[in-house]
Amino acid sequence: MDLMEKLVSLCKRRGYIFPSSEIYGGLNGCWDYGPLGVELKRNIKNAWWQDMISHHDETAAPGSAPGSFGMVGLDCSILMNPTVWQASGHVGGFNDPMVDCRETKSRYRADQLVVYRLLAADSVPATLADEELLYAAPGEVGKTAEADLIQPHRKHVESLRKKLGELRLEPVLDALSDASLRARVLAPGAKEPGSLTAPRAFNLMFKTNVGAMENNSSIAYLRPETAQGIFVNFKSVCDTTRVRVPFGIGQIGKAFRNEINPRNFTFRSREFEQMEIEFFCRPEEADDWYRYWRDRRFQWYIGLGLSTERLHLREHDRDELAHYASDCADVEYAFPFGLSELEGIANRTDFDLRQHMEASGKDLRYFDDQEPDADKRRYLPYVIEPSAGADRAALAFLCEAYCEDEIGGETRTVLKLHPRLAPIKVAVFPLVKKDGMPERALSLYRALRTQFNAFYDEKGAIGRRYRRQDEAGTPYCVTVDGQTADDGTVTLRERDSCEQQRLPIDAIAAFLAARMS
Ligand code: ATP
After folding, report:
1. Who has the most CB within 10 Å: 333, 344, 438, 514?
2. Long-range interactions of 198-201: CB distance < 8 A, separation 24+
3. What is the DSSP letter of 22?
């Protein structure tokens, strides 16, 4: 089993993540968080809210921000006036290119299929010979390992190697849009070439109808991002709070996208949760704020335990930028299925506020009453947008945490989650079910529960109880034993090192509190 399979199986076995409506066969792209998963995800969202919104000025490295700033939150409705999505450009342009395979009946996103040709290692790339076969494989140009692309064609590759010697892969760009090239593309799992259709634009927004009538005038969309709710409330927030530019508005909430090909567990889902900030600043300061948020968001993941070797900050090339963005970077994580986006940070200029100002006819310009220069008082702020996915973050933290090691000759599975993110912070056990141990353990458990998510377990051998908590990611276990009655101490066992120490029972709460921050 590879790491992903092991993780999916652990998530199901221990109640982290289940397929949605599983007893009816599930629903592609939808997932349910179980008792442990819901705690993990809530801890991630709480950490984000505390660090970015409520304590944003305490959690940043001192002096790193271009200036002081405010942060407030919002919780907008998922259904909005459909004109929002006209103005934002989503109705016209929120499309992915879709491709179908007539032979295998599979559906792909054209930009997630690499089409390549096999060449003798030393041959100079020239025009394609008419009879030359092209291969399509799930993946992305430049991101997918050659070995993975070749894998399904091993036999054919071997026979070609015998004829041509070493082989190399050359991506053939735009092969799917060109009918004559497409006819020569062998689709994944297909026997005959030419089974793929030309890419068609597919709008990712889910449509529904509001009210009793189902007609064109009742169409509404499930929001595909939380950001637009922030833009359309910009003026209300300015009018009702004391915030002054520069400031940010944050929102956590569900978003929906009818993804063509949901895959990689929860990574690409059709229903997911976003954690987004729209940060409003003066246009001339936008470059500084962009760099600030890009670096601060990158560091946030490291602070919660993602390793710097697996995290990657990828600045977009100029030709990759959306037409409204002047800068964009992705925080990427090396998942077992490849380097993939956790979060995007973009300088969206004044594009969104301007679109909504024009479409609604409402003046959305900010008024700075303290600006001495009268010409500069009214303006449309620029927006820096750090847009993160709570589910992708949860998946990255789980992948990073998953570990199998050997303790005392026995292998164990352990989730080395950061204590702040761990669903259960502490488990309390009586060593055995007699001599007053359960009573003492229960009373400690009840006291700890007022501060931390705690768990009580008195069943089975102590070693097994420890290992169950290791698998659930619980950072500390406390055991009440015979000595507790004599001197008021308990054993505290640490998850990652398995080290044990004796502490006074009254010192446990303070010990845990110090490690949860
Ligand atoms: P991708 O290129 O992977 O489709 P995107 O660039 O379209 O993602 P954004 O529109 O920038 O994504 O969305 C911001 C964040 O929302 C992403 O970084 C990701 O964390 C999250 N997100 C987007 N789509 C999904 C999805 N289908 N499932 C889970 N999370 C998602």
Report:
1. 333
2. 198/99, 199/97, 199/98, 199/99, 199/110, 200/97, 200/98, 200/99, 201/95, 201/96, 201/97, 201/98
3. G
**pLDDT tier at 125, thresholds 50, 70, 90:** low
Q: Ligand 1 pocket: which of 257, 313, 341 to mutate (most atoms <8 Å of CB)?
A: 341
Domain boundaries, the chain: 3-93+207-398, 95-202, 412-515
CA 276 and chain centroid, separation: 12
Q: Which fold has domain 3-93+207-398?
A: BirA Bifunctional Protein; domain 2 (3.30.930)
**How does pLDDT run across 431-462, given as a tens digit for each residue?**
999 999 999 999 999 999 999 999 999 999 99
pLDDT for the residue 309: 97
Q: Which atom of ligand 1 is nearest to the CA of 393?
A: 20
Burial class (CB in 10 A: 0-12, 13-18, 19+), 134: buried
CA angle 309, 312, 315 (to 5 degrees): 155
- The answer to whether residue 59 scores a pLDDT higher than 80 is no
Decide if domain 412-515 falls under CATH 3.30.420.40: no
Name the pTM for this structure.
0.92
Spell out the long-range contacts of 489-492 with Cβ–Cβ below 8 A and sequence spacing 24 or more.
Answer: 490/444
- pLDDT, tens only, 284-313: 999 999 999 999 999 999 999 999 999 999
Residue nearest to atom 19 of ligand 1 (CA): 389
